[in-house]
Specification:
Strand order of the largest sheet: 5-4-16-15-17-18-19
Number of strands: 35
Helix content: 25-40%
Strand content: 15-25%
Largest sheet: 7 strands, mixed
Distance between the termini: 59 Å
């Protein structure tokens, strides 16, 4: 008698698999190149072992051969420094606007409690033409940077595409970031133009940010033009900036100008945008991606993996500071409608995001793992009370999903949906492992490595391991790997971030287990990045705030994924001599972090400790302490004599046993 597959949650029926984009790609490979594949694993092996053949196939399958020629697919197959599609010229904005359809909108947008508003492809193209023409009139072009301080609204999409159209570099910070966090990023980008909204909506509240805009402009000496976007408040006369040398413009006037679209013809490796790391080890790293790399990678990732189609409505619950916002905008490459939501996913209740999906008719919905966990823990039953029949797939990312939440999706959200769990990140602005409509969905497992991604798990010695935990590595180049980092002329920060552990091989910073069947299980970050609701944050930002308080002499913040699917972010502080960590001081710390950074940065609990252990070179033991809080034996984590205050490792183990692995949480422990 056959044992039931209790982990099996969903399988594509033959008809669904046959009409998928990836099946169409396989048929095309057979018709045009005489290739055949036994299964997904066979296709994946080919895609990673013959990179020029695979990526040239993606190029041709998506019609890029009709846009531009190229000399060589992969001229320099090394990491870092791979050179892709040499001689090709391509513009991301032009490709995003290349598939207009009068029968469906390009954008659907709404705010908390608002009515969905549609932007046609013709209107989107006109606005991009108008704003890009105005940028050119101001002298903005290749070599310049345009920055946004914007929520997830249509103006942000238009500003990105207009910037790309003129060949300038785009970057954006969400207005829920505190001013110091914004300046730590935009100060490096050195923008000439800042496009800023007057505020944003979250949790039923309108948050006026015009004062913060003035502070940001004050400390960005390169800014010469401020473009104001009125979303919350009526437009009124008067300047937002205190600087007399900054010219202020109104977005409505820019977007309404009469202009014809024009797209600067740029090389494949021309800089497109700057995404930002969390700033774990210092100031955030500005990660620069290319026009061509993003176009070809996200045609592949969204088309062949996520199965995005022109008739889809693609919603991702995100802010503009998370890389999935860029991933969402790239849905336009496929002619799909993208859905923009400015608000909290838990407004007016925990089913808020699903209400947005219902109201907009979303067919592909992206959310962070934390949101699904929150719905399960709240006992939500969105599938019973809402009409979610349009949803054919849910794309989940940000962190690992506990087994019970996988089952909750099928029991109480959408029983027939294809749940795609995805692992990737800001670094490549794409997925390294994710879904396929050729494969079943099983509890706790990402379906497969992504096509074209030579993913493996390696042990500390650099050997691949199967069915055991190792470092997630990528052993061959990808087109969307960063061109470089901002202000990293010699490439030393770039190399140290990905290639120091295994020279010539990309180390991503996740613990993964790759099975013999090629499923992937992510166990959490192998570095010290904090990760809340899919938003990666830097411990260094928190230290910069907390360590300035006179009552605190040292601090350590940890973000730890727990076995039950929870996530805890405690802050350990060393009080100054004679200072007692009481509720008043805890409140001051929380207020300082919230004001300087964002509500996401506020720790779950604040605990007094006698000391913070460090390496002998002075680095805080973030990763070892994280592992101890997750239950690891201190002896297995750090070698004796390798750190200062070694006795603190036992302290953290005792704290974990009492306050984390148990059922209680506390804001105090004797120091």
């Amino acid at each position: 008698m056959k044992t039931p597959d209790t982990d099996l949650l969903w399988s594509p029926d033959p008809e669904t698999a046959a009409r998928s984009n990836i099946s169409g790609f396989i048929r095309w490979l057979g018709d045009t190149r005489g290739l055949s594949f036994a299964d997904y694993a066979d296709l994946w092996r080919w895609s990673t072992m013959d990179l020029p053949a695979f990526w040239s196939a993606v190029w041709q399958f998506y019609g890029l051969d009709e846009v531009t020629t190229y000399d060589e697919v992969l001229a320099t197959p090394v990491m870092p420094g791979a050179q892709w599609f040499t001689g090709a010229r391509i513009n991301f904005a032009e490709r995003c606007l290349a598939h207009p359809a009068a029968s469906r909108p390009a954008l659907v947008s709404l705010t908390e409690g608002g009515i969905p508003a549609e932007t046609s492809w013709a209107d989107l193209r006109q606005q991009v033409a108008a704003v890009s023409t105005t940028l050119r009139d101001l002298g903005v072009g290749p070599g310049d940077c345009v920055a946004g301080y914007l929520p997830n609204i249509p103006e942000a999409v238009v500003a990105l595409l207009a910037t790309a159209a003129v060949g300038a570099v785009w970057t954006v910070c969400s207005p829920d970031f505190g001013t110091p966090s914004v300046l730590a990023r935009l100060g490096q980008a050195r923008p000439t133009v800042l496009v800023a909204a007057d505020g944003y909506r979250h949790g039923g509240k309108e948050r006026d940010r015009r004062g913060q805009v003035a502070d940001i402009v004050d400390d960005l000496p390169t800014v010469r033009h401020l473009v104001t976007v009125n979303r919350l408040l009526p437009a009124v006369s008067g300047t937002w900036s205190r600087r007399s040398d900054v010219m202020q413009h109104e977005w409505t006037a820019w977007a309404a100008a009469d202009a014809l679209p024009e797209f600067t013809d740029v090389p494949f490796d021309h800089p497109l945008w700057i995404l930002w790391s969390s700033g774990t080890t210092g100031i955030p790293k500005g990660i620069v991606h290319s026009h061509g790399g993003i176009v070809v990678e996200l045609l592949k990732a969204l088309g062949l993996s996520a199965d995005l189609r022109p008739d889809d409505r693609f919603l991702f619950i995100t802010s503009t500071s998370w890389m999935v916002w860029n991933f969402l905008v790239a849905g336009l490459l496929h002619g799909a409608t993208i859905v923009l939501y400015d608000g909290s996913p838990t407004f007016p209740d925990v089913d808020g995001a699903w209400r947005v999906a219902e109201r907009t008719g979303a067919t592909l919905v992206g959310v962070g793992a934390g949101y699904l966990v929150a719905g399960e823990k709240a006992g939500a039953r969105p599938g019973a009370g809402l009409d979610l029949g349009a949803i054919r797939s849910i794309l989940q990312t940000g962190s690992s999903l506990p087994p019970s939440t996988w089952r909750w999706v099928y029991d109480h959200l959408a029983p027939d949906v294809w749940l795609q769990s995805v692992c990737g990140g800001t670094d490549v602005c794409s997925a390294l492992a994710g879904g396929s409509l050729l494969l079943p969905v099983r509890t706790g497992r990402i379906q497969c490595p992504a096509l074209g991604v030579a993913l493996a798990a390696w042990n500390p010695g650099g050997d691949p391991v199967i069915d055991e935990q190792g470092e997630l590595v990528v052993t061959a180049p990808m087109p969307s790997m960063p061109l470089h980092f901002v202000a990293d002329a010699d490439g030393s920060r770039y190399r140290a971030s990905y290639f120091d552990t295994y020279p010539g091989v990309w180390r991503h910073g996740d613990w993964v287990t790759v099975s013999a069947e090629h499923t992937v299980v992510v166990s959490g970050r192998s570095d010290a990045t904090l990760n809340r609701m899919g938003v990666r944050m830097g411990s260094a930002d928190i230290y910069a705030v907390v360590d300035q308080l006179p009552e605190i002499t040292d601090s350590l913040v940890i973000g730890a994924e727990l076995e039950d699917g929870g996530y805890i972010m405690p802050l350990f502080v060393v009080p100054a001599p004679g200072v007692v960590l009481d509720d008043v001081l805890r409140g001051r710390i929380r207020d300082a972090v919230r004001h300087a950074l964002s509500p996401r940065h506020v720790p779950d609990t604040i605990v007094a400790v006698p000391a913070v252990p460090r390496t002998l070179t002075g680095k805080k033991l973030e990763v070892p302490v994280k592992r101890i809080l997750q239950g690891a034996d201190p002896v297995e984590v750090v070698a004796t004599g390798a750190v200062t205050h070694q006795e603190m490792l036992i302290w953290f183990a005792e704290y974990a046993a009492e306050f984390i692995t148990g059922s209680s949480r506390a804001d105090s422990r004797p120091a």
